[in-house]
């Protein structure tokens, strides 16, 4: 049987899209091989001229405008959408779980003691609006005031950075401090950091900034380096390829969205602060962060701060809603997950780097926390 010919109308200019493409590659390697056509494609650009005469079997596309939607409809080929714009609402689509992203972002800032939280979005994108709406719901349930700013959209023909910067500056001046700001994505977060720098607002001491997408280059080049929500883009691509494979085999898959949850948060300097009024709890948290992978326990923390164990645990519970022991385990688990995802280190090496004497102890800890062994977690796309 000849290979199926599949076109990928997905731009390669940003880390999100490249991650989606990598997920498609993962699927193809593990299943039936496809003949892949990946042309140069601008996000939101006009449909390529070759599309009308291309004789392929299926398409995965970021459908960002009506002209692309019309061209794909005319092609009469199986299509899977990896855009939130929904220009073709009747076809299968795979996107980020924006509710889960907003919840994870809010949790990250609440964990650092922030009670003033804000969201900065771009109303030209559905995913930004969905994250904003969930942010408002979370504000109601968590009893904080939602400070929301929808900036000028880049989709506006009259857009200018000068006008957007002016609006951002006015908003930032009005916000209570300290405040944690969730930007709809990393580029928006970079803009906030630039305006903070021009206004001489200290980051993260006065304003902590969190992005979404974890574009490594953008985040590391930001000043200070930008914390960001890690979207599971490879999973998005993998699921899109799976749907297209089923469509090309003649299966009916429906138009219900496949929403992919984020992996976690890559914390960097832009949120490396604790907005807590209790100096002893702050000192304890800093001690934990600095020594968590050295095999410390609660007794070690008590020796570092002028509090009894009972008082320390009581204040921790009041400020953070968890115990010092739970905080140690949370940081260890986050680091283990990161090393399993991003490195090929052996389990003994990961155990050594995260404060476990033996990899067997790490495996028991990880299985108890996640319900699965480390090896299975590493193999999960």
From TrEMBL:
<feature type="domain" description="HTH araC/xylS-type">
    <location>
        <begin position="282"/>
        <end position="380"/>
    </location>
</feature>
<dbReference type="InterPro" id="IPR028082">
    <property type="entry name" value="Peripla_BP_I"/>
</dbReference>
<dbReference type="Pfam" id="PF12833">
    <property type="entry name" value="HTH_18"/>
</dbReference>
<keyword id="KW-0805">Transcription regulation</keyword>
<dbReference type="GO" id="GO:0003700">
    <property type="term" value="F:DNA-binding transcription factor activity"/>
</dbReference>
<dbReference type="InterPro" id="IPR018060">
    <property type="entry name" value="HTH_AraC"/>
</dbReference>
<dbReference type="InterPro" id="IPR009057">
    <property type="entry name" value="Homeodomain-like_sf"/>
</dbReference>
<protein>
    <submittedName>
        <fullName>Xylose operon regulatory protein</fullName>
    </submittedName>
</protein>
<dbReference type="Pfam" id="PF13377">
    <property type="entry name" value="Peripla_BP_3"/>
</dbReference>
<dbReference type="InterPro" id="IPR018062">
    <property type="entry name" value="HTH_AraC-typ_CS"/>
</dbReference>
<dbReference type="InterPro" id="IPR054031">
    <property type="entry name" value="XylR_PBP1"/>
</dbReference>
<keyword id="KW-0804">Transcription</keyword>
<dbReference type="Pfam" id="PF22177">
    <property type="entry name" value="PBP1_XylR"/>
</dbReference>
<dbReference type="GO" id="GO:0000976">
    <property type="term" value="F:transcription cis-regulatory region binding"/>
</dbReference>
<dbReference type="InterPro" id="IPR046335">
    <property type="entry name" value="LacI/GalR-like_sensor"/>
</dbReference>
<keyword id="KW-0238">DNA-binding</keyword>
């Amino acid at each position: 049987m000849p290979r199926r010919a599949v076109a990928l109308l997905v731009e390669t200019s940003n880390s999100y899209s490249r991650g989606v493409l990598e997920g498609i590659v993962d699927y193809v390697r593990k299943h039936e091989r496809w003949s892949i056509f990946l042309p140069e494609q601008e996000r939101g650009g006009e449909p390529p001229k070759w599309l009308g005469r291309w004789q392929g079997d299926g398409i995965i596309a970021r459908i960002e405008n009506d002209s692309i939607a019309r061209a794909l409809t005319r092609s009469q080929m199986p299509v899977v959408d990896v855009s939130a714009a929904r220009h073709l609402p009747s076809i299968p689509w795979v996107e980020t779980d924006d509710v889960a992203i907003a919840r994870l972002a809010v949790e990250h800032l609440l964990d650092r003691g922030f009670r003033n939280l804000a969201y900065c979005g771009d109303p030209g994108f559905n995913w930004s609006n969905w994250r904003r709406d969930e942010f408002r719901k979370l504000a109601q349930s968590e009893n904080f005031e939602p400070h929301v700013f929808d900036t000028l959209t880049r989709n506006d023909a009259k857009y200018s950075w000068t006008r957007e910067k002016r609006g951002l500056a006015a908003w930032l001046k009005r916000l209570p401090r300290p405040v944690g700001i969730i930007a709809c994505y990393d580029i928006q977060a970079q803009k906030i950091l630039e305006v903070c720098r021009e206004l001489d607002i200290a980051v993260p001491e006065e304003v902590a900034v969190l992005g979404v997408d974890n574009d490594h280059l953008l985040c590391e080049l930001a000043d200070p380096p930008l914390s960001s929500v890690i979207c599971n883009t490879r999973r998005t691509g993998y699921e899109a390829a799976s749907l297209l494979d089923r469509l090309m085999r003649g299966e009916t898959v429906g138009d219900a969205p496949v929403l992919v949850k984020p992996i976690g948060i890559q914390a960097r300097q832009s949120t490396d602060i604790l907005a807590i009024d209790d100096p002893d709890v702050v000192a304890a948290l800093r001690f934990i962060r600095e020594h968590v992978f050295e095999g410390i326990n609660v007794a070690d923390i008590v020796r570092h701060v002028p509090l009894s164990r009972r008082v320390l645990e009581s204040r921790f519970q009041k400020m953070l809603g968890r115990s010092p022991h739970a905080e140690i385990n949370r940081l260890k688990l986050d680091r283990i997950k990161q090393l399993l995802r991003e490195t090929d280190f052996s389990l003994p090496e990961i155990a050594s780097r995260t404060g476990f004497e033996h990899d067997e102890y790490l495996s028991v800890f990880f299985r108890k926390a996640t319900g699965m062994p480390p090896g299975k977690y590493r193999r999960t796309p």
